[in-house]
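Researcher: Final request for today, and then I'll write up notes for the group meeting. The sequence and the SMILES for pyridoxal-5'-phosphate follow.
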Amino acid sequence: MSHGAGPFAIRGGHGHPGLIHRFLDHLPFEATDPIVSLQEGSTPLVLAERISERVGTEVLLKIEGANPTGSFKDRGMCCAVTAAKREGAETVICASTGNTAASAAAYAARGGLRCAVLVPDGKIAAGKLAQALMHGARVIALRGNFDEALELVRELTKAHPIALVNSVNRYRLEGQKTAAMELVEELGTLDALCIPVGNAGNITAYWKGFGEVGQAPRMLGFQAEGAAPLVLGHRVEAPETVASAIRIGNPARWEEAMSAMTQSAGAIEAVTDEEILDAYRFLAAHEGVFCEPASAASVAGLLKYGAPDARRVACVLTGHGLKDPQTAMEQSGSVVPCEPQLAAVEAAVLG
Ligand SMILES: *Cc1c(COP(=O)(O)O)cnc(C)c1O
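Model: Predicted protein-pyridoxal-5'-phosphate complex:
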């Protein structure tokens, strides 16, 4: 195993390999490429007993928040940044609702590249902003929404030798398809996949990954009601939802998402913010799994629409709950104040 040139290159034996090494046969890379990895992928797949009971079928959770920066974006980003580095780019850029920025910043830091991110001003979760800043990205707060940010970075990269690492970049999808391959490795088959849909890169990537290993589960995509262009059949000019990671009104992978849906006999449906937050709290309180609001859209959709005929369903939990501490605090109980005396502690604990 090679982690690129350099005197400290690791040669095997250090934990699980990153996904480029693990899936080298399925990816457009060579072991001799300057691979930029944080040992992403190989995320947990856990049985959700309480949700299985509620749905009446076996439901598994793919915990993508266990990736190095806390979201599935790392799968795509290790590939996009490796490709950028191989092509000699010095700078990467993306528009982001937060997680792409955090991931791009981390992988750019790892690969010794500069990174700039355009995020909608005031609309990204605190954890994601902290990550992008800590990893040394230039964070540009656009007075506009994600769709405008993506439009602008696409224009910018036409005129400058800067690598665009949004999911319009094909290497992003290549990396993200490996999550589908992990599911098939572990389960053999599954009947349906529930997944939140924003820019629609991830649903496109999963469908590609399943296809490459000869599987075709129903693709059940879920959008937030206030940001549901694929459900409505037209762009949403001012998308709004508590699930900031999927607050997108004009998905870049629109056509691909729709064909994944039709080819798999799946569906793309909307869930309300209330349904998203119900699933978000339920997952944390009854499954012990803390994901971010956008991720809970997959479970919210499954609870709302069911998965007809499916015996085994996987829900993708795209990002970690710690990404968005503010929503968590607003959605949970308050702390119990207490004086430092045994009686008071007793009352507080037992009360
Ligand atoms: C990016 C993201 C999504 C949406 O993925 P798309 O590829 O844009 O459809 C969902 N959840 C989280 C946590 C994300 O970061």
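Model: The first strand starts at residue 45 and ends at 47. The mean pLDDT is 95.
Researcher: Thanks, that's everything.
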